[in-house]
Amino acid sequence: MTTSHANSARSAALDMSAEEFRELGHGLVDRLADYYAALPQRAVTAGEAVDTIRAELGPRGLPQTGTPAAVVLARAADLVLEHSLHNGHPRFFGYITSSAAPLGALGDMLAAAVNPNCGGWQLSPMATEIECQAIGWIAELIGYAPGAGGIMVSGGNMANIVAFFAARKSRCDWDIRAAGLGDAGLGLRVYCSRETHTWVQKAADLSGLGTDAIRWIDCDTSQRMRVGHLRELVQEDRKAGLRPFLVVAAAGTVSTGAIDPLGEVGRFCRDEDIWFHVDGAYGAPAAVLPELAADFDGLAEADSVALDPHKWLYSPLEAAWTLVREPRHLTDAFSFSPVYYQFDEGEGWEGQNFYEYGMQNSRGFRALKVWLALAQVGRDGYANMIRDDIALAQRIFEAAAAHPELEAVTCGLSIATFRFVPATLDAAAPAASDYLNQLNQALVIALQRGGEVFLSNAVLGGNYLLRACIVNFRTSGADCDALTATVVEAGRRLDSELRPVALA
Ligand SMILES: Cc1ncc(COP(=O)(O)O)c(C=O)c1O
Q1: Do residues 292 and 395 both lie within one domain?
Q2: Taking the CA of residue 435 as centre, how many other CA atoms within 13 Å lie in the half-sphere pointing to its CB?
Q3: Each residue's pLDDT tens digit, 260-291
Q4: Cβ 278 vs Cβ 250: under 8 Å
Q5: Average pLDDT in the chain
Q6: Among residues 147, 161, 211, 264, which one has the fewest Cβ atoms lying within 10 Å of its Cβ?
Q7: Tens digits of residue pLDDT in 86-117
Q8: Under a CB-based contact definition with an 8 Å cutoff, are residues 318 and 422 in contact?
Q9: Is the domain of 403 the same as that of 329?
Q10: Closest CA to ligand 1's atom 4
């Protein structure tokens, strides 16, 4: 068999000359610079249907032969730039997906070019040290325990699930990693508020505990965990011979941005010897603000914290951290040392091998984009952006409260919820409540497809609400005013189409 490198330097199909790479790279960066500059002028989304997108992409079969890199890259740029939902648009208010820092895009390119494998220190010496430094910076940013450790993962689900497994290992008095759950494991119980994100169901399911092991704590009228109810359930379970091992408190719930009473929950967990985890996937970065110190009081006492830079630190996806007060809890829960790894080289080589701290072996250099952004703007830069986002959510809430056809419902961190209530609707009529839900749901769908503004929804007390979340450094006061104006205009139009005769 002859090969392309039998006698000389190899020429592989995927390789590229320095000149070609330079030309393609400059061309792409030019297009991206134009993309960023024109974002405010374009629609948030073209709202194209699945069939349209598939038709645009074309046939699904694998090409037998290749196409020049310049052609495929240009086509990919056309496809992605012209047929995406642009969450970096100033009028994107949906879910908790941030505008991504442009420096992060360049960071991802640098990371991919060098491609360090951040599973082992030896394979990623500078990258691992940058990741370690970034962990320290994040912990400092939110006032978490000095000496904390952690691991970078893909997103909030994973960050919380890693903490769940660390908690489970630390609170079992048998070797659960070898013996499995056994009879004792069936008694393990986890406690969290009804507003907790669904990662907790995934964790309970995947860990073998089952979702019935979750004890749901009621919330007060501000969607904060009722600690009295937590106490009652833990006592009840202890009496029944069960094993409470983990309490999850939220520092910013997914629907309304509520912060559970962290100090009170933390003290309870310490007294009861239960692992105290804070899901700060969304909200923890707001702990940087001195004016919110009282809300985040107790965060520093948590055994673990989940925090997603791809939410409120404006990092490109994917970037999340599990922080733990004592790093050994991660190695206790995840470490195995296979014979085929030779990463402990002796004195002078005591670097961190992240494959022992979590679920992945091979790991990308996700930390770079986060480290770059922290270095670019520092504590002050983040404090200012986060403070502005919170003020804008408040502006939306106040505008809704002041408008006769909007009902302002909640405002927590940078999330405002509200709904459209037509001025001429008799809200006391028997069918009015169902109709308002139907109308506001239709409104969210229409706005999401329309491309002028993008928001998502929340459901509170059976009421379907519009939900605007600002984790977007491009959003201005004018964009927020445009949001409420667009909601009212679309609301009136839909009401005229949908209102049943009985409610006319
Ligand atoms: C409080 C909270 N926890 C966890 C998650 C899950 O994060 P991800 O979507 O990055 O997995 C979210 C997502 O919005 C969240 O708001």
Answers
A1: no
A2: 22
A3: 999 999 999 999 999 999 999 999 999 999 99
A4: yes
A5: 96
A6: 147
A7: 999 999 999 999 999 999 999 999 999 999 99
A8: no
A9: no
A10: 156
pLDDT at 342 over 80: no
Cβ–ligand 1 contact at 185 (below 6 Å): no
- 150 is in which domain, residue-wise? 116-364
User: CA-CA distance, 284 to 124, in Å (whole number)?
Assistant: 28
**Which atom of ligand 1 is the closest one to the Cα of 96?**
14
6 CA → ligand 1 middle, Å: 52
Q: What are the structure tokens assigned to 424, written together?
A: 């001429």
Distance, CA 308 to ligand 1 centroid (Å)? 8
Decide: 197 in ligand 1 pocket, CB within 6 A: yes
In a domain, 372, yes or no: no
**384 and 357 part of one domain:** no
308 Cβ inside 6 Å of ligand 1:
yes
Q: What is the pLDDT of residues 60-96, one digit of tens each?
A: 899 999 999 999 999 999 999 999 999 999 999 999 9
Q: Is 472 a domain residue? A: yes
Question: 205 and 245: one domain?
Answer: yes
Question: How many domains does the structure of the chain reveal?
Answer: 3
* Nearest protein Cα to ligand 1, atom 6: 156
| Predicted TM-score of the model (pTM) | 0.96
Residue 457 shares a structural domain with residue 392: yes
Q: Contact 341/121 with Cβ under 8 angstroms?
A: no
Instruction: Indicate whether residue 325 lines ligand 1 (CB < 6 A).
Output: no
Write down which residue in 333, 364, 395 finishes a domain.
364
Residue nearest (by alpha carbon) to ligand 1 atom 8: 156
Q: State which of 282, 314, 470 you would mutate to test the pocket of ligand 1, scoring each by most atoms of that ligand within 8 A of its C-beta.
A: 282
Tokens of 308: 């997603």
Shared-domain flag, residues 132 and 244? yes
Taking CA atoms, 10 is separated from 23, 64, 65, 335, 419, in Å, by: 22, 22, 19, 39, 63
HSE-CB for 71 with a 13 A CA cutoff: 3
Same domain, yes or no, for 337 and 193? yes
Residue 260 in contact with ligand 1 by CB distance below 6 A:
no
Q: Is residue 105 part of a domain?
A: no
Q: How far is the centre of ligand 1, averaged over its atoms, from the C-alpha of 171 (Å)?
A: 25
DSSP 152: E
Say how far apart CA 426 and CA 437 lie, in whole Å. 14
**CATH code at 412?**
3.90.1150.170
> Which helix (DSSP H) or strand (DSSP E) does residue 245 occupy?
strand 243-250
> Do the domain assignments include residue 396?
yes
Q: What is the CATH number of the domain that holds 259?
A: 3.40.640.10
